[in-house]
Amino acid sequence: MKKLICSVLMVVGLGAYGQSGDDLVNHYRAFYNEMRLQGDVNGIINALTHLNVLAPSKERKDTLAYVYMNNNQHVQALNTIGIEKKTDDSDLAVQVKAVSLKALNQPKRALEHFELLFTRNPSAYLAYELADLKIQVGDNDGATTNITYGITNAKDDMKYAFYERQQPYEVPLKAAFYHLQGLVAYNKDKNNIDSAIASIDEALKIEPNFNLASLSKQALVSRKEKASEGEQN
Q: Domain 122-233 has what CATH class?
């Protein structure tokens, strides 16, 4: 008799939990929608986290990771979906891994995810990210391939943002590619500074106020002058 009562109580308890679970899911869905309307990022993260516990979903987990990424919480984003390259990952998940790993100064790991994105949907923007990362890891030939693609496919209205100054600014994407081309030229042959400067001049023709390109040119001109002084001495 006691076993029967316990069994009945368990069934009733499970039924009550199922009903309350559904109520909680509906509550947090409504809460999520309200937080989105209010633009409350912490509220959105809270709602999605609860929903992922109550009703796990790969799509919802990817969305949570994306929200973390957009909020510059890159460690949390990667803790949510991992860092491994998976061919069955959604485009959103691959983007989160690529951007967050780059932000955390993990260029080699970021590269494989940007490569996967580029394979799925090639674009000049992705080509720039690939070229930039390949320069960082010393793959100048690979960077050249991406730069050539980018210069060919960058449209006049495409912009790229830079943050080395206190005030971020944008330049035409094609100018950004010419700047990278100059860096690659220097990396390949440090004795041929003129070639590197010529590419950076192309960037400055497109965007005279391209601060990073100006700094790179100043550094190259300075090295050229020092090299000339050394030869004279």
A: mainly alpha
- Secondary structure of 10-48 in the HEC alphabet? HHHHHHHHHHHHHHHHHHHHHHHHHHHHHCCHHHHHHHH
pLDDT category of residue 11 using cuts at 50, 70 and 90? very low
Long-range contacts at 149-157 (CB < 8 A, ≥ 24 apart): 149/122, 149/124, 150/124, 150/174, 150/177, 151/177, 151/178, 151/181, 153/123, 153/124, 153/127, 154/124, 155/124
pLDDT of residue 3: 42
- 117 in helix, strand or coil? helix
CB atoms closer than 10 angstroms to residue 189? 11
pTM (two decimals):
0.85
Report the C-alpha gap between 57 and 80 in whole angstroms: 12
Question: Vertex 95, ends 91 and 101: CA angle to 5°?
Answer: 150
Q: Is the pLDDT of residue 9 over 90?
A: no
Q: DSSP assignment of 128-160, as one string?
A: HHHHHHHHHHT-HHHHHHHHHHHHHH--TT-EE
